UniProtKB/TrEMBL annotation:
Descriptive protein name: Expansin
SUPFAM superfamilies: Barwin-like endoglucanases (SSF50685), PHL pollen allergen (SSF49590)
Classification lineage: Eukaryota, Viridiplantae, Streptophyta, Embryophyta, Tracheophyta
InterPro entries noted in UniProt: Expan_Lol_pI, Expansin, Expansin/allergen_DPBB_dom, Expansin_CBD, Expansin_CBD_sf, RlpA-like_DPBB, RlpA-like_sf
Family to which the UniProt record says this protein belongs: Belongs to the expansin family. Expansin A subfamily.
Organism: Anisodus tanguticus
Subcellular location: Secreted, Cell wall; Membrane
Amino acid sequence: MLLPLLVAFTLFSPTPLVHSHYNWSPSSTSTFQSEWRPARATYYAATDPRDIVGGACGYGDLERSGYGKATAGLSTVLFDKGQICGACFEVRCVEDLRWCIPGTSIIVTATNFCAPNYGSEVDGGGHCNPPNAHFVLPIEAFEKIAIWKASNMPIQYRRIKCRKEGEVRFTIGGAGIFLSVLISNVAGSGDIVAAKVKGSRTGWLPMGRNWGQIWHINADLKNQPLSFEMTSGDGVTLTSYNVAPKNWSFGQTFEGKQFGS
């Protein structure tokens, strides 16, 4: 059942190309922002488990992929056309002493896009319209910092480094010579700005961003062990050799080195 004061918004949920914790300024995601910045936040309460599947970053089922409820959909000015996917933010409630839970903050990972509603004013139903900095949180996260009746809350946020359990994950999708790779569970800056793949019979091949954190290339890499090179938003390059064995297949997920490890 939806809560009575549930705020309406639209989270982007495309059809993924692959089959398969409370833990920003555009184009400057490579620089961590230590200062607090103003924004607002609303929440959603999932009425069906499928509501958490999909999203504009390509992570799929957020529970199964390890992100849980520590996630956020970001408005246009924060989303940066998907480059921000995977970045981590600390968020706290401010200004409204009636609804804020004092001394609390949450850490969330950017996993989705809150699409603008140009049919509404930015101070009305268009919460995610430019130039608004807006976070859409699962109610489980929202209630860590504010009473749910607060609805559209003033908050402050700052970019922080991500801490993740386990290694970086590579989920291989595609078909034939089309190879797509979802890169997830990234520590450090959390976002990936460049990726390369290498087979045993090739050199390093640059991959293009398909959408979110799904990267792609047209190349026949079947029957070759695969290595990956990633560059994070803060300029750190990490190479993982022979992540996928020679007999890899589409739909499988493999683990490589982790940033900061």
